[in-house]
Amino acid sequence: MTSQQTEIEPAASEASTFSPRPGTAPGIAAGLAAPDITGQGQLVTSLKRSQQATPHRFRDLLALDDFERHARRRLPPMIFQYVAGAVETGTSLRRARAAYDDYALLPRMLRDVSGRDQSVQLFGRTYASPFGIPPLGGAAFIGYRADLVLAEAARQANIPMILSASSLIRLEDVHAQNRDAWFQAYLAGDQARIDRLVDRVAAAGYGTLVVTADTPMLGNREHNIRSGFSMPIRVTPKVAWQAATHPRWLLGVVAQTFLRHGAPHFENTEAERGPPMMSQQSVRNTVARDQLSWRHVQAIRQRWNGRLLIKGLLAPADAHMAREYGADGIILSNHGGRQLDHTVAPLHVLPEIAARKGAMKVIIDSGIRRGTDVIKAIALGADFVLVGRPLLYAAALGGVAGAQHAIRLLQQEIDRDLALIGARRITDLEPGMLRHVAQGGRQHAASEQE
Ligand SMILES: Cc1cc2nc3c(=O)[nH]c(=O)nc-3n(C[C@H](O)[C@H](O)[C@H](O)COP(=O)(O)O)c2cc1C
Hints:
This protein is about 40% helix and about 10% strand. The chain is α/β, with parallel strands linked by helices.
C-alpha cells in the first residue's frame, strides 16, 4: 500500500499527492524565475519566496476558511470588515453559502479513478483547475500590491484572475504581469464614457471583459460605517487607533505603498486615472451607474471584439437576455452578499439557467470554500467557479506564496474529492452524483428538483 492509499497518513503528506498535469501549470510544476518589477521590491521578494515549498508560517492554514481567522488578527477591524462584511442582515451571504449544504454527494465506487485530471477548457484555453479569482476592489489596500500578487499567483497556477474596476493598480501593469488576466468594469449608462474605457481595456491587450450588472447603486454596507471604513478613507481617531495597533498592515501595506508608489488612486474606473483614494474630493465616479441597461451591453458587444461576460445575474430571464445579447458567459453571483440582501442563492438558480445556456458559459461564485462546493456547482451545470475573499486574505497574509498556498489547498481538495466521488475528470461530474436534501431531510434527485 502506498502512502497515498493510507488513511492514517498525516494530512500534510496526503495533501502533497496532488500535482498539476505537466504542461497545464508550468509555474507550479517548474518554479518561477521572478520577474523584476521595477519599484516593487517586496513583490519580487514575495515571488522568490513563492518558489519554496509550503512555508512554515502557513502550517495551520489547512482550508480556505482558515485564512479568514488569520486575516482577522492581522488586519485593522475596518479593513477586515470591508472584506468579510455583507449588507444589512447578512442573509444573502448566509444563503449563498448554505445552498451548498442543501446538496449531499452520492459517490460511486470501484471506478478506477487513477490519473485524475481537474483541468478544464474555457474560452479556448485549458486552465489547470475549474476555479479562478473574481474581481476584488480595493485589494491593494488590503495586501501590498495585491492585484499584482493575485495576477502573478493566478499566472503561475494557470487559473484566471479578474482585475476589478475599483482597483488601485493600473490595468496596463496588471496585464503586463499576467497576459491572461480578465478585466471587470463598473459602468455608468453613458455610452461615450463606456466606449473610452472599452478602448483602453482593448489597447492594453485584455481578451476578456466582464461587465458587472448588480451595482446600479452600492449595497447598504452598514458594517463599513460601524467599523470606521469610509471612502474616501477619513483618518478619524478610531481609524488612527486601528492602524496604530496593526503595524504589519500600516507599515507593510500603507507605508510601503505611499513610499514606493505614492498615494493610491482608483486607476481603472474610467478611461482616465481617477482621484487619490484618500482625498476628500475623491468621489468615485459612480454617477449614472443606475442608468446602465441592455442597450449598453448591445453597444459594447458591437465595439468589443474579445470575450464578453456579464457578472451578477441571478434571474433565469436575465441569463437568457445575456445570451441573446451575445455574451460569451455569465457569472451567477450575489456579489458575495454585498449588494441586495435576501437574494436567492446563486446555486439555487444554477440548474435552471444551465439547462438553457446553449454555448454560453455559466460561471458561479459567492460562498464557495471547499472542493466539495466546486464539485456540487459543476455537477449542477456550472462550467467554472470563482472564489473571492479567501484568496484576498491569502494574498494579504502571504503575498504570492500565500495565494499559491490557498490555490493549492483547493486544488488538493478537488483532486481528493474527485477520487472519492468516483470521477476522473471534471466532465465526469453530473447531477446524478447529488441529492437535494432540503430542510426537513426530504431527498430528491437533483435533476428532478430544479
Ligand atoms: C473586498 C471585495 C471587493 C469586491 N469588489 C468587487 C468589484 O470590484 N467588482 C465586482 O464585480 N465584484 C466585487 N466583489 C465581489 C466578488 O467579485 C465576488 O462576487 C464575491 O467575492 C464572491 O463571493 P465570495 O467572496 O464568498 O467567494 C468584491 C468582493 C469583495 C469581498
